[in-house]
Design goal:
The protein folds into two domains: about 170 residues, Rossmann fold; about 190 residues, Glutathione S-transferase Yfyf (Class Pi), Chain A, domain 2 (Up-down Bundle). Helices cover about 45% and strands about 20% of the residues. The strands form three sheets. A six-stranded antiparallel sheet has the order 2-1-4-5-6-7, with helices on one face. Strands 8-12-13-3-14 form a five-stranded parallel sheet, with helices on both faces. The protein starts with a strand and ends in a 6-residue tail after the last strand. The structure holds adenosine-5'-diphosphate and magnesium ion. Magnesium ion binds next to helix 1.
Length: about 375
């Protein structure tokens, strides 16, 4: 659990020290006081990335040159000395630094120390938004299970960039392409096979959760990729199998790639799809149903992490109750009320958790507005 959080120049916070409680903490404060920013910083501490922004520059307080986040983590009661996680970003040097107990490490590695799951109104974009958001979500869950995944994605992106540069030059470069293709296939197939393995676990949990949340219709999901022959079943997660198929698909797409001067297939183009009763959720579901699928995805993520790590992830609930009806609200609270640590934000706290859900949260008010 997170016992202390210190922020410097993160979003609207010049300096902030936050001491979350064990159990359920409610952070209340008016709109614009920084509640979402606070949860975003905790998410960043546990993942090395923001869930809202691609670019770290946006997280630096306006006018400042860096941000830093420092957190003290305690795992279980027996561990007397807390782990220290630190994340910082320096704008002029464009440098991100992640430290675990004072030693530099790769961004994904923090996921093993502080698994977090965030619920926010933006979760709807997991269904409605562009494929990149779904890939990012899935890759984050994979990274939380296999911290090495984040580094493999970076390698893959580097190789992809080189390959695309060659394609852009547009001359006959077959001999130069080969080594890049080999690496693209090596990293790419590892990425795909891990995604498939996590996705099948996720979908199992998600359709179960969806059913209990009152989705009477059957929820299924698919991994959409030109690497695999199209089919409704999830492809096998076996790495060697993925490697063979990716290699072949890449060869077959070579002349298209050369014509379009870009790598047209691979994990960077893949997508997830969800279906209710066989209908694509993105196009045929109501906003309410889409929200329920997104909610199920996040609960599924938290169940997988609990299984994987033998302890529950830290749950961040950003203003989610305002959008759920009473029944769903109590189902969500039921799911998490026994968790060791939950931090929820609300615009104004009226004490209704205590009455309705028999929860006695610790209340923190956020007055800070230091611009
Ligand atoms: N990089 C930044 N530097 C300074 N302030 C920022 C930055 N990014 C966002 N803000 C401010 O943070 C405020 C929003 O905080 P937010 O966490 O969304 O509030 P809440 O969730 O409590 O409604 C906005 O008023 C915005 O001006
Ligand atoms: Mg907010």
């Amino acid at each position: 659990m997170l016992v202390r959080l210190q922020l410097t120049n993160f979003r609207n916070f010049q300096e902030l020290e936050f001491l979350p409680f064990e159990g359920f903490t409610v952070v209340s404060g008016p709109n614009g006081s920084g509640k979402s920013n606070l949860l975003e910083s905790i998410y960043y501490l546990g993942t090395g990335y923001s869930y809202r922004q691609m670019h770290d520059e946006n997280l630096v307080r306006w006018g400042a040159d860096f941000f830093s986040i420092r957190g003290e983590i305690r795992q279980g009661n027996r561990q007397p000395i807390p782990y220290i996680l630190e994340s910082a970003y320096q704008m002029t040097a464009r440098r991100k630094i992640i430290k675990i107990n004072g030693k530099r490490d790769l961004p994904g590695k923090v996921a093993a120390y502080l698994p977090v799951v965030i619920f926010s109104p933006q979760d709807l974009l997991l269904i409605q938004g562009p494929p990149g958001l779904r890939r990012r979500f899935l890759d984050m869950v994979v990274t939380q299970v296999w911290p090495q995944h984040a580094a493999d994605i970076n390698y893959y992106k580097g190789v992809l960039l080189q390959r695309n540069n060659l394609l852009r030059q547009g001359i006959d470069l077959s001999s130069q392409m080969e080594p890049w293709d080999e690496q693209l296939v090596a990293f790419g197939s590892r990425i795909i096979s891990r995604r498939l393995s996590v996705l099948s676990r996720l979908l199992e949990n998600v359709s179960q959760v969806f059913e209990t949340l009152g989705g009477s219709i059957f929820l299924t999901g698919a991994y959409v990729s030109q690497v695999f022959p199209s089919s409704n079943a999830l492809p096998r997660a076996d790495e060697a199998y993925c490697r063979d198929l990716f290699r072949t698909a890449l060869k077959n797409a070579r002349s298209l790639d050369e014509r379009l001067r870009v790598t047209t297939l691979g994990p960077h183009r893949d997508d997830l799809r969800f279906f209710l009763d066989g209908h694509d959720a993105r196009f045929y579901c109501s906003q309410g149903e889409q929200r329920l699928i997104a909610l199920s995805l996040k609960i599924g993520q938290s169940r997988i992490l609990a299984e994987e790590r033998q302890f529950e992830p830290l749950i961040l609930l950003d203003d989610v109750f305002s959008e759920l009806d009473a029944k769903r609200r109590s189902q969500v609270l039921n799911e998490f009320c026994a968790h060791r640590q939950v931090i929820a934000t609300v615009a104004d706290y009226s004490g209704d958790y205590v009455d309705k859900y028999q929860l006695t949260p610790s209340i923190v008010s956020l007055h800070v507005r230091s611009l």
